[in-house]
Design brief:
Largest sheet: 4 strands, mixed
Shape: globular
Oligomer: single chain
Strand content: 15-25%
Helix content: 40-55%
Number of strands: 4
CATH superfamily: Glutaredoxin
Order of helices and strands: EHEHEEHH
CATH architecture: 3-Layer(aba) Sandwich
């Protein structure tokens, strides 16, 4: 099973939605909070090429944010990625 990493913020509704989807699917994930941590946000931005949260990785693959996660779910591709 691939490790899932979510960079997030406590006050971000998209982060809450993305984490809720993963929790509903029973997927354990590592949450890295960027609130008040400019060095952590900078690390995320360097890895993702984006400044917004959430930023989500499944294994080594950056899948993007909340909308990207839900698009994979709608397309029926998320479960296969999580099991890889």
């Amino acid at each position: 099973m691939s490790q899932v990493v979510v960079y997030s913020s406590d006050y971000c509704p998209y982060c809450i939605r993305a984490k809720a989807l993963l929790e509903k699917k029973g997927i354990a994930f590592e949450e890295i909070k960027v609130d008040g941590k400019p060095q952590v946000r900078a690390e995320m931005t360097k890895k993702a090429g984006r400044t917004s949260v959430p930023q989500i990785w499944i294994g080594e693959r950056h899948i993007g944010g909340c909308d990207d996660l839900f698009a994979l779910e709608r397309a029926g591709k998320l479960d296969a990625m999580l099991k890889a």
